[in-house]
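We both want to read discrete structure tokens more fluently, so let's practise on a single case. Would you write everything just below, so we can both look at the same thing?
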Amino acid sequence: MPRDYSAKPRGARKQARRPSTAPAGIPPWIWLICGVTLGLCLAIAAYVVYRPVADQGAARLPAGPPPAAAGPPQLPPREEPRFQFYELLPNFEIVPRAENYEAPQEPARPGSYLIQAGSFKQAADAERRKANLALLGVESRIEKVTIEGQGTHFRVRIGPSGDFKQVKATMRHLTDNDIDSFFIRAQD
């Protein structure tokens, strides 16, 4: 005969579920304390094993005075000067351009002066500056100069002129037309 298994036995009772009283685990603050403690222990161990070299080097130095030198230290031979700047500079008088141009004072020594209106690596740039000066009514020339270590330069120069007032007027005219320039005392 068939039996119905879905029905519960009559004597079975329903048991009530109670919350468990077993601990759920270790609280997080204990894990934090353990982690910090372990980190400090590892840092101390690393410091002890890998001490700074300064502490170990002091123990290796021999005690006593330093060994006597055999004489004065040998210096390398003196080289010839590579620059001529120091000999040439006293012969030149250079006036930088300022936003508000102030004419230089009359020099104590009379002489002839050159105005340099540019120095270029390309000859075409120097020719362009010379043409601009010609449009302003200023006669100029181009000088080709070879500078050691820098190659060939083309300088655009005006003059020489013995009249310092004329030099000042020309420089003011160039400054008014946004052309940088400076004057040089020509060597006697």
